[in-house]
């Protein structure tokens, strides 16, 4: 195994991972990722609150209520377009602090009370700590809130699901093309105990998921995620069987491609992903083409992929910002304008181009803002 040394770390999770490596040998990035983020005692998501300005990153719902309001308007329109099924499950996977669902409920209450009357509000969350925060956030609405740990635990019936930055939290594996063929990038140890990246040979033919990619060149990296594929397959099968749709927001690329997008975030900045595991978010760009293929295999109608900025602007982000700004002073107007620019802007600080929106539906929908009918 070839190795590149990284700085020494000695927190409890580092020591636990080192023991796993001592016992099992170098581990996949996927296994390291899951330990770093989801270890029950020391994992990043199980032991800290990463969201917001005081955390390590900020999500679109935390930037402004406008995001959730526009998502709610789209969901209500989509529900009507599918015949207003009642009852139905209104679900969010990975709901963070519950901010997005709170804004959806508040807005839907104003737009169409029959939507909320038919909805069975469900949050899919594995963290008990976050589930408590979500329950407190949604308590003022005086609605039954169902918490489930897995997609498979959601009750039967038509499902209208929204997820923001869900797939990027699911682990990847990385493979590097070398003169002797594909090698898997793994996490091992240096002699002095530091965690280090290295590579190990991959059996010929073991990499079967390289759809649409050109022949690799030496040094090319491919990122594959069995976990993302499995979730997309399960979600597709559920929607195909029960009806409904999924509206997904995440950052990533429209076409499958070679590249290294593994990164770690702490205090709104990039850090070494192997330094102090459990203290930083680990993520990578989502391959939306792979997700779309998986939804298509389930027989779903898949929307054209759209930039988040275009999606929000065509739903009325600028107009909503103007309405909110009219009631405030100059400082408030500037804050609202800054939030709108953060959500839809294309500059370095903007989320508008990097973040994408994908919809997958059990039936074709003619529903703005997508340019064309969601087609089979």
Report on the architecture of this protein.
It is a single chain. This protein has 376 residues and is an alpha/beta fold. 36% of the residues lie in helices and 23% in strands. It has 13 helices and 18 strands. Strands 3, 4, 5, 6, 11, 15, 16, 17 and 18 form a 9-stranded mixed beta sheet that branches. Strands 1, 2, 7, 8, 9 and 10 form a 6-stranded antiparallel beta sheet that branches. The chain starts with a strand and ends in a 15-residue tail after the last strand. The N terminus is likely disordered.
SSE layout and pairings?
Elements: E1 2-5, H1 12-24, E2 27-28, H2 29-38, H3 44-47, H4 60-63, H5 65-81, E3 88-93, H6 99-111, H7 113-118, E4 119-124, H8 128-138, E5 146-148, E6 159-164, E7 173-178, E8 181-189, E9 195-201, E10 221-224, H9 226-242, E11 244-253, E12 263-266, E13 269-271, E14 281-283, E15 286-287, H10 288-297, E16 301-302, E17 306-307, H11 308-314, H12 317-326, H13 330-344, E18 355-361
Parallel strand pairs: 3-4, 3-6, 4-5, 6-11, 11-15
Antiparallel strand pairs: 1-9, 2-8, 7-8, 7-10, 8-9, 11-18, 12-13, 12-14, 16-18, 17-18
Keywords:
376 residues; alpha/beta; nine-stranded mixed sheet; six-stranded antiparallel sheet; 13 helices; 18 strands; 36% helix; globular; disordered N terminus
